[in-house]
């Protein structure tokens, strides 16, 4: 776990390094792009990352051991599989807050006085980290939940895998002990995060001396969402025109060709057809759950005294464990992953809303507005919600591929839809054993998930639709361009 956190921290630093460099040199206006690479990295399932690392690094290259747990060398690949997606998401969230920190008066004054940009960047990170610390506790438990599938791939005994096996075997004493350990882990992580946030900006919160972390200028709309969305829509549309259940045992594990653009699986079924038909199940559920989580997270985030203990409790239940509990009560089926993920998806958004709301209420302009006689309803409607909703909505978009990954992870464990349903989690689970022999069978659904992640992140900054040049209407009189004004030399 500690090694995975170190990998996540290093990945987050790499993701936001360019924003830090531009902010330190007062060149944030040159910032372009929406972080598609980080989005795709965050959209990779842990079990898929683990499988690729085990096959490529462990088996083909032989650089590191692929199975077991016998020393520090066996820790590298699992830590990379767990830390890379989490670090990419944390880095994107931090990069979203940094432009606002660099636009605050202290940063402008530091640049005017000639203070080195390195010091300004360090203090900008310190200014933004408290808003992310509540989510750090969530990431700790999220890594524990993700470790369930990673431990299975690498054959590692751990808390998540032990709890999973106990739930499958209905071993209630072990299941209760594992759940209690996760609850204690979440409580300790949440307490440490709150303590660190208080140490960093406690005096400013008490004195109401903070400034809002607003972007100096909104991110420029990009055409990248059109590219990612168009590719994903094309794959789905072409797949819907094919039969996802047609068997052809003579075409097992065929590579991509004109007949099968994405190849075939172990039963000779067309992967393009299965991805297209499975998109409705995965994407529709992910969008619906993300929208419900955003609404619930904002509403509960406005009530921190009520939601705080609830967040600490529900935070201790990863989506995988929630799926096991739901399956134990209601049985398996297509609705089990949706209920399990919806039960825990609102937690990080609630924590994020609470943290941003506390900082916004401590700002100087809120204090001044209160002094002018503004009521709570006015402050909430005109000041607090407009400041909190945009970053939380972008956070929800960032987590959209994570919701889809949670659904696919539960399908990968066999808790969701059952064969021959073309759900994306089942596609990954069915083709994962053939990753070494037929990598396209795994890369096809994984690429669809990566496109979803890139679409979610780039769309958060706005979409720039290309405009066609306007043509004059038929029969409209032609208006000549006005003559250029004469220069000073010509008038003389």
From TrEMBL:
- Gene3D superfamilies, per this entry? MetI-like
Q: What InterPro entries does the database record attribute to this sequence?
A: BP-dependent_transpt_permease (IPR050366), MetI-like (IPR000515), MetI-like_sf (IPR035906)
User: Region (Disordered) spans which residues?
Assistant: 469-492
Report membrane topology.
Multi-pass membrane protein
Localization per Swiss-Prot or TrEMBL: Cell membrane
* Protein keywords: Cell membrane, Membrane, Transmembrane, Transmembrane helix, Transport
Q: Name the Pfam families on file.
A: BPD_transp_1
In the record, biological process GO terms are: transmembrane transport
**Major location (coarse):** membrane
Which stretches make up the ABC transmembrane type-1 domain? 275-461
Name the GO cellular-component terms.
plasma membrane
TM stretches of this protein: 41-62, 74-91, 136-154, 174-197, 279-300, 320-347, 396-418, 438-463
| Keyword flag Transmembrane helix | yes
The record's PANTHER family line, in alphabetical order, gives: D,D-DIPEPTIDE TRANSPORT SYSTEM PERMEASE PROTEIN DDPC-RELATED (PTHR43386:SF1), OLIGOPEPTIDE TRANSPORT SYSTEM PERMEASE PROTEIN APPC (PTHR43386)
Regarding protein family, the annotation reads: Belongs to the binding-protein-dependent transport system permease family.
What is the protein name for this chain?
ABC transporter permease subunit
- Which organism is the protein's source? Streptomyces caniscabiei
């Amino acid at each position: 776990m500690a090694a995975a956190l170190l990998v996540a921290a290093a990945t987050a630093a790499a993701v936001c390094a360019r924003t830090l460099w531009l902010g330190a040199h007062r060149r944030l206006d040159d910032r372009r792009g929406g972080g598609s690479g980080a989005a795709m990295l965050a959209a990779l399932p842990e079990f898929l990352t683990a499988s690729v690392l085990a096959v490529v690094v462990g088996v083909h290259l032989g650089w590191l051991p692929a199975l077991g747990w016998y020393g520090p060398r066996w820790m590298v690949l699992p830590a990379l599989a767990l830390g890379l997606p989490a670090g990419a998401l944390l880095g994107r969230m931090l990069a979203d807050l940094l432009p606002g920190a660099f636009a605050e008066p202290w940063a402008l004054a530091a640049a005017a006085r000639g203070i080195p940009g390195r010091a300004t960047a360090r203090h900008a990170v310190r200014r933004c980290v408290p808003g992310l610390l509540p989510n750090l506790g969530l990431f700790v438990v999220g890594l524990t939940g993700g470790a369930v599938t990673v431990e299975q791939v690498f054959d590692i005994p751990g808390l998540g895998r032990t709890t999973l096996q106990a739930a499958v075997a209905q071993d209630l004493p072990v299941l209760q002990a594992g759940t209690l350990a996760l609850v204690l882990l979440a409580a300790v992580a949440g307490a440490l995060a709150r303590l660190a946030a208080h140490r960093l900006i406690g005096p400013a919160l008490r004195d109401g001396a903070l400034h809002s972390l607003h972007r100096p200028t909104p991110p420029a709309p990009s055409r990248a969402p059109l590219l990612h969305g168009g590719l994903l829509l094309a794959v789905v549309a072409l797949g819907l025109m094919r039969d996802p259940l047609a068997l052809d045992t003579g075409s097992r594990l065929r590579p991509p060709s004109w007949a099968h653009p994405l190849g075939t699986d172990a039963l000779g079924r067309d992967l393009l057809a299965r991805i297209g038909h499975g998109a409705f199940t995965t994407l529709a559920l992910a969008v619906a759950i993300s929208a419900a989580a955003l609404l619930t997270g904002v509403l509960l985030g406005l009530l921190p005294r009520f939601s705080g203990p609830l967040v600490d409790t529900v935070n201790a239940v990863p989506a995988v464990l929630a799926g096991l509990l739901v399956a134990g009560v209601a049985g398996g089926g297509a609705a089990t992953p949706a209920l399990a993920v919806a039960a825990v998806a609102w937690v990080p958004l609630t924590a994020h809303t609470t943290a941003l709301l506390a900082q916004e209420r401590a700002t100087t302009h809120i204090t001044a507005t209160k002094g002018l006689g503004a009521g709570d309803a006015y402050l909430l409607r005109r000041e607090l919600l407009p400041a909190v909703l945009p970053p939380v909505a972008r956070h929800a978009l960032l987590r959209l591929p994570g919701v889809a990954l949670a659904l696919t992870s539960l399908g990968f464990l066999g808790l969701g839809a059952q064969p021959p349903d073309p759900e994306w989690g089942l596609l990954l689970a069915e083709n994962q054993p053939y990753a070494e022999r037929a990598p396209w069978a795994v890369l096809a659904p994984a690429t669809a998930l990566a496109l979803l992640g890139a679409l979610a992140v780039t769309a958060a900054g706005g979409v720039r639709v290309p405009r066609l040049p306007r043509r004059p209407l038929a029969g409209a009189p032609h208006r000549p361009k006005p003559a250029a004004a004469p220069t000073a030399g010509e008038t003389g």
